[in-house]
Fold this protein.
Amino acid sequence: MGGFRLAAAGTGEVEALTVPVARREFADLVREHQSMVYSLSLHILRDPPAAEELAQEGFLQLHRNLSGLKTDAHVVHWLRKVTCHRSIDRIRRSKSHPEVNLASAPEPAVPCYRGDPMLSERIRILVASLPADLRTVVVLRYQEELEPAEIAEILSQPVRKVKAHLHKGLALLREKAKRFVGEVES
Amino acid sequence: MNRLEEALRDALRREEAPGGFTEGVLARLSSPAARPAPWVWLRWALVTTLSLLLLVAVQYNTERRRRAEGERAKAQVLTALRITAEKLEYTREKTTRATSRGPAAGRPVNTI
């Protein structure tokens, strides 16, 4: 979120982002960020039960580390970092979550157009077919609207590498979209 | 922004967490499984105690060996001193005997 959301936020929101989290109820914290954490893990893992479990574990870990996080902005950064690393670890460790095989995915029954839920689902399948590193960068870029420098900080990678992953990920998606979706190609 | 990026933003929008997500987190938080089990602390305490004991034992052994070496060195010095004292005493007695007999002592007597 960082600069993007801060820039877009009103005065009240900016104040809220700097309120020490120690004084806030943990339940409110979970409610506030659960959508972000769950969506990140869902878009990376593409497995709703696993995403929910991973997101919950992330919040449990947050609870144990809450004393070290001074502001809501730190909490958001920490949650993104932990969620992404846990998701990547899970993909790499688990043999039961292979990357989605595009050839085995069902074809859409009707032609796709922009804003169509079916097109979105096809795009999510395409994203899930990317290698874990590229997938995570793409999800952070387009779900969380983060700049490459922010993504680099979250993934503890050089900015150059993140840019390369993003470029490669988009090129792969473009190529796959041309074959499987067609209309999305710019 | 091209159409692919637009489609990505559309497809990767944040989704609501399943119902009862927060309650699930809080329930897991209050469950014993979420808290570190006592045996975890016990294990760490045991490891720490054993490490300390090992450290103390190593320190004690090092000190004991150092003392033993010191005692050995002291005994060697005392032996050397005793031998030196005996030699000196022997030399002193010999010198005293030679002096008490006078300057001619020990020389053959001229009888012619």
